Each structure stands twice: as C-alpha cells, then as structure tokens.
Amino acid sequence: SLTDSPVTLKILQNWVPRVSPYFDKDHYTYAGHQIVIQESIEHFGAVVWPGALALSQYLESNQEQFNLKDKKVLEIGAGTGLVSIVACILGAYVTATDLPEILENLSYNISKNTQHMNTHKPEVRKLVWGESLNEDFPASTYHYDFILATDVVYHHTALDPLLATMAYFCKPGTVLLWANKFRFSTDYEFLEKFSTIFNTTLLAEFPESNVKLLKATIRED
Questions:
Q1: Is residue 29 part of a domain?
Q2: Fewer CB atoms < 10 Å away: N or C end of the chain?
Q3: φ/ψ of residue 143, rounded to 5
Q4: What does the pLDDT look like over 10-44, one tens digit per residue?
C-alpha cells in the first residue's frame, strides 16, 4: 500500500565540485568510491537526473534492507550509468540498459568507474522498452533480483511500453525500485496504472526535489 509512512529525505551533496577543464564531468562519492560521470548534452538520457541521485543515496544508506551483494540487478533507462555503478560497487551483477544512442556514453562511464574495482564486471545492453523483450532477454534464462529505474517517467510517448517492460522483468521474487521526479499529471496517471499491476510501497520522499522512491513487486493474484 502507499499508506506506509515513507521517510522524508534530502538529496545530499555527494557531488564534489571540481575545477575541471571539462564542463561535462561530474564527480560523486558513494559507498566510499569516487565516481566520475561524463554527461552528454545531446540526449536526455545522458544527464544525471535527481531520481538517480536519490536512488544511489538510498541504496548506499540501506544496504541491510536491500543487500545487492551477488544479486542480479537490471537497470532500465540507465542513462549516464550512475545508479548501475553504485549497484556494482555494492557487489551486484549489473546489467545496465538503454537506447542504442545512449550506450556509448553509458559504456564509457561504467567501464571507467568500475575497471579497477574488485567487483563483478557489469554488462551494458541495448533495451528499447516494449520491443523484442523475449528475443533479447528470454524469460526462461533471465531472472533478476532487482530492477532499478530512475526518472524513466516524463513527457514521452513510451509510457505503456515502459510499464509493459517493468512487468515483463518483474517475476515473483523480483523487487523493483523506482525513483522519479513527479512534475506532471501524466506522472501521477502512470503511478496509478503502475499500482494496478504492482504491490507498491512509497519508501522515501525527497520533497525539495519532488522525488518519490517506490518499491514494487508484481501482484500475483
């Protein structure tokens, strides 16, 4: 239910300002690791949005509740890869996915930030919501413990395919963690539809950023 009392949090400044010749690189610190993210101004998916900061912070602070060590984790709409990198640092087997045009920057950030770590090597794959799911990720082979999604809901036309994709990967036993900045009525309409398919709990709210963090499991009725 959405009635459980969520925690109210603030997105902490884990961002470390640096004097850098590149305007497009951001430095963060999570789980004791410095993470450098290269953003790209060409694509929506190549900028760090507040939902990614909120989920990264929550995963770092709640490792007992959500222990990612040796778990299989899929991030959909991974964007710059920050959340996938944090999940990797926390010991998960990570598959980061996004649209083809995002993958180059995503792969660059993930390999750059995880290459010297003693962690499971993350994988980067193309995933277009609602398309070729069973061919690319056959249900018989692919089972994830956690699905991570941040700021995947905004003004775009792919909301139904997004919901179908979330439902496809959320098998019984899978936990979906979704952080999103709620700006538009369409965001709340999506949440209503989402709540008909998933058992949904509001874990945390970040009021200054209008971000909600939800935990969901597939309804088995």
A1: no
A2: C
A3: -135, 125
A4: 877 655 444 444 446 788 889 889 899 988 766 66
Token pair of 30, please? 């999570």
190, 163 in Cβ contact below 8 A?
yes
| CA-to-CA separations, 4 to 172, 200, 201, in angstroms, rounded | 22, 10, 7
Q: Give the separation between CA 114 and CA 124, rounded to whole angstroms.
A: 12
Task: Show the domain range for 102.
Answer: 44-218
Give the CA distances from residue 47 to residues 99, 111, 174, in Å, rounded to whole numbers and listed in that order: 14, 17, 27
Per the structure block, which two tokens stand in for 68? 């990612």
> Domain holding 194: CATH number?
3.40.50.150
What contacts 220, CB < 8 A, 6 or more positions away?
172
pLDDT at 164 over 80: yes
- Cα separation, 153 vs 220, in Å, equals 24
pTM for the whole structure: 0.90
**Domains identified in the chain, total number:** 1
